[in-house]
Amino acid sequence: MTDPSGARRRPDHLTPVPSPRPEPNAGRAEADAGRAEADGLLRAVALGDEAAFGRLYDLVAARVYGLVRRVLRDPAQAEEVAQEVLVEVWRTATRFDPARGSATSWICTIAHRRAVDRVRAEQASAERQVRVATSPAETPHDEVPDQAARRLEQQQVRRCLGDLTELQREAITLAYYAGHTYREVAELLGAALPTVKTRMRDGLIRLRDCLGVLGVEVTR
Amino acid sequence: MSDIHTLVGAYVLDAVDDLERAAFDRHLADCPSCATEVGELLETAARLADGAWSVPPPRLRAEVLAQVSRTRQERPAPRPGRDGRSTVSRWRTVTAAAVAAAVLTVAAGVTSYLVQQQRVRDERAATVAARAELDRMQEILDEPDLVVRRGGLSFGGRLTVLTSPARDAGVALLAGAPPVPPDRAYQLWLMAGTTPRPAGVLTAGAGDDSAVLAGLSGMSAVAVTVEPASGSAQPTTDVLASVPLT
Ligand SMILES: [Zn+2]
């Protein structure tokens, strides 16, 4: 079996292209190039290019699997859901619209939705169990490819989460990493429903500003 | 304006239930500022996945690629062209169907959807009467003998009727019906054979609303028509949907 980690993730001919903008460091440039690469690959996938899908897999599979596993906790279920997600990316690639966001974000949105769907389905059948969210810093290090870009991105997210108020941070992480509804979050935190909704929103806005997310391009 | 905008954060984090999601999706079609914000915040939320990176077992790659090679891709959807209207109305119908389907499967979610709808009616939600009606709905929806029936409206939308024989009462939920002019409203009727009895006028202009139904014994169906916003004693227009109760 081929090694899906570092060695295969970035084919030689797709090494980061030097950016015309001044770059504070190489990690940032690599992260940006990774995103641009995913955009291009997903557009090729939409045209039925299976080879491009293989390269896209190498670029995003660890992100998809990691996210799904974080939400579901169970590696076997996570593998199953990650497979569904990645096949859905192939099947629905024609829906991706680069004017509305990045490929990475589009894929993560699908992955998160499917993971949460699975949590809810479980909750509907079994008795509800309280999940405890952990900070995003806890991914075991041996599972993280030792790569400057990855580490930088993680540090940036961690730092920006650290800039939120405690309630904002808890509301967002309990929802995103543990798959709780805002009602469950309110219950867990002993906070009022409108407060939790508001903190989720203003917390995300603060994160957006901290991360410098470009978001939707208004000009088409 | 309604309260539903504040759901943006929870929606982006997938922290809403199916019915709220359907309601918010519908809202997004009409609210460009929420649509822009959702785009930005989805991009932001996706960055949270940066912290969850974990290499999958190698077999996953082979399995995914094998499945991909035998999976047909969706055709590209036609971009909304000069006739954006038809796209929107078809989309509304689909959403209404999703709401009704969700009503059937997520009994607990019904309550929260109704709560949400009630909030959407802003000032009304603050009134004692509206609160009492909401409490009443929740009592009915909590009954273990709850029966769910639904019917399609002749020009889009669904009428879902949830009844509790033990309480001799029910809840009617109109979802995804086309909005009517502000001086008109959807009105509900309880039918005893062919004889209609007024069973509640919904919010003027609204295509999504709910109402408590009382005194169901001997009634054969719940019907809906469009009437003046003040309500009518007898239906003055065609019946758009009729959901049998037996
Ligand atoms: Zn809005």
UniProtKB/TrEMBL annotation, chain A:
Gene3D superfamilies: 1.10.1740.10, Winged helix-like DNA-binding domain superfamily/Winged helix DNA-binding domain
Location of the RNA polymerase sigma factor 70 region 4 type domain: 155-207
Superkingdom of this protein's organism: Bacteria
Ribonucleoprotein is among the record's keywords: no
Chain spans, region Disordered: 1-33, 127-146
Keywords tagged on the record: DNA-binding, Sigma factor, Transcription, Transcription regulation
RNA polymerase sigma-70 region domain span: 56-123
CDD domains, per the entry: Sigma70_r4
Membership in a protein family: Belongs to the sigma-70 factor family. ECF subfamily.
NCBIfam families assigned to the protein according to its UniProt record, in alphabetical order: PRK09646.1, sigma70-ECF
Protein's UniProt name: RNA polymerase sigma factor
Organism per entry: Plantactinospora mayteni
Automatic annotation (TrEMBL), chain B:
Keyword set, alphabetical order: Cell membrane, Membrane, Transcription, Transcription regulation, Transmembrane, Transmembrane helix
Pfam families linked: RskA_C, zf-HC2
Signal peptide: none
Cellular compartments annotated: Cell membrane; Membrane
TM stretches of this protein: 94-115
Gene3D superfamilies: Anti-sigma factor, zinc-finger domain
Major subcellular site: membrane
Annotated region (Disordered), positions in chain: 68-88
InterPro entries in the cross-refs: Anti-sigma-K/W_factor (IPR051474), Anti_sigma_zinc_sf (IPR041916), RskA_C (IPR018764), Znf_put (IPR027383)
Domain Anti-sigma K factor RskA C-terminal: 97-237
Bias (Basic and acidic residues) ranges: 71-85
Occurrences of domain Putative zinc-finger (ranges): 3-35
Topology with respect to the bilayer: Single-pass membrane protein
Classification via PANTHER family: ANTI-SIGMA-K FACTOR RSKA
Entry protein name: Regulator of SigK
Organism (species): Plantactinospora mayteni
Lineage, opening ranks: Bacteria, Bacillati, Actinomycetota, Actinomycetes, Micromonosporales
